[in-house]
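sorry to bug you again but im stuck and you know this stuff better than me. what follows is a protein written twice so to speak, once as letters and once as C-alpha cells for the fold. id like you to explain what the C-alpha cell line says about the fold, in plain words if possible. anything you notice is useful, everything is just below.
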Amino acid sequence: MCGKPAHRRQSGLTLPEMMFTLMVGSLLGAAVLSFSLYAGKSFAALTNYVDLEQKSQNALDRMTREVRQVRRVLNFGTTMLRGQVITNTITFEDSDGENLTYTFSNDVLIRSKLGVDRVMLTNCDYLTFQVFQRNPIAGQWDQWSTTVATNTKLISVSWVCSRNVLGNRMNTESVQTAKVVIRKE
C-alpha cells in the first residue's frame, strides 16, 4: 500500500451536459405549456359553443311555438341592409288578444308581452326577421316578400351569436334559421 493515493471518480455533470439537460427540459416544458394553452382554449370554445347552441335552441323553440299560435302580425319595423328589407321589430296579436313583440337591438333579442320584457338572446352579431305573404297564385307554394303586416303568413328568423373566448371574438355557434307559418290566420 505504498504509492499513490487512489483517485476517485467524482459524480456530477459537466457544463455541456448541464446545458444540454436544461435545453431539453426547457423544450419539454414549452411543449407542455403550449399544449395546455391550446387544450384550455379548445375546452373554453367548446363549452361556449354548447352554451350558445342550447340558449339559441331554447329561444328558437319558444319563438316558433308562439308565432305559430298568434292570430296575425300587427306591424313590423324594417331597415335596409345590403339592398334587402330586414325586420328588426315585429308585433303580433297573440292568441289571447294581447300584443306580443320581438325586438332585436344592441345585440339582444327581447320578447315583450303585457309590459314584461324578457331577454331571449344576448351576444347576437346578426338577427333578422323577414315577412312573407301567401302566394297569390293558387296551387303554388312560393313565398313572396310583403310590406303589408296584415298580408303576412310566414315569418323567417335568422341569427348568429358569438362571444369572447380568451380575448378573441369567436363565432362559436352555428347559424340559427327558421321559417314559421302563422297557423291561426
